[in-house]
Structures are given as structure tokens and as C-alpha cells.
Amino acid sequence: MSNYRIELNYAGVGELLHSQEIADAVKEVADQVAAKAGDGYATDVYQAGTRVIASVYTETEEAMKDNLDNNTLLKAVGG
Predict the structure, then answer these.
(1) pTM
(2) CB-based contact 73:54 (threshold 8 Å)
(3) Percent of the chain surpassing pLDDT 90
């Protein structure tokens, strides 16, 4: 087996992690999780210091209770 050396372009990786393409991709996954969880769940996408982050959260009291009782978000993610 050959030995390969890979050198990352850290500036390029950082640019990629902040790109609109990555934001769209994580938003799509978060929307799928929220849809699978059901009514009362919402998504948010924001720029953190090193990357784009998406979150799925409970938006209503009913969803919060559902998530507490059934681990709905965990199940929607596949955990």
C-alpha cells in the first residue's frame, strides 16, 4: 500500500464551512428532521465562529411536552 500525505488548505476549508452551499445543506437536513418530528418543531441556521450551524427546536408547548415524553427529536435524528 502506498503512503500518501494530505495537506489541508485551512483557509479554503474555513471558507467552505462558512459558505452558502453548506448553509443550504445543513438547513435542508434540519428541515427534514423538523418535518419528521411533526408540528411544533422549527429550525434555525446561523453562522458560528468556525462554521454554519443548524438547529431544530421545539416552538410550542405541545412540542416541548412531546419531546420530553417521547424523545421525539432524538428519534427524528435517528438516535
Answers:
(1) 0.84
(2) no
(3) 95
